[in-house]
Amino acid sequence: QAGLQESGGGLVQAGGSLRLSCIGSGRTLSVYTVGWFRQAPGKEHEFVAATDQSDGRTHYADSVKGRFTISRDNAKNAVYLQMNSLKPEDTAVYFCRAGIRADVTGKASHTYDSWGVGTRVTVSS
Known about the structure:
- It is a single chain.
- By secondary structure, the protein is an all-beta fold.
- Helix content is about 0%, strand content about 45%.
- The strands form two sheets. Strands 2, 4, 5, 6, 9, 10 and 11 form a seven-stranded mixed sheet that branches. Strands 1-3-8-7 form a four-stranded antiparallel sheet, with no helix packed on it.
- A hairpin with a 4-residue loop joins β7 and β8.
- It is globular, with a radius of gyration of 13 Å.
């Protein structure tokens, strides 16, 4: 949705790694704050990480801090989420969301006015 295309999800065992990609189509992601959110079955939409449009600040949910890294490759119009040391509780559909002047902390999730359709991550025990 809104010109965002997620990829990179899959099935991994606990302790493994995945890299999620968010590619902008028809828009330049460098002018957007871009965040990753996730939703597990039966759970609420949850903020994971974001990178600010202005100064490159990043912010992470406590649950993923130290394990996940969000980064940009503006030449490829892409934002990545490197996920290491995956846990079963990381299992969810991961969504890329973007918004001009969106809240990098993820608390004001409504400030992300564009989002993708999600990519599924399943972490087995």
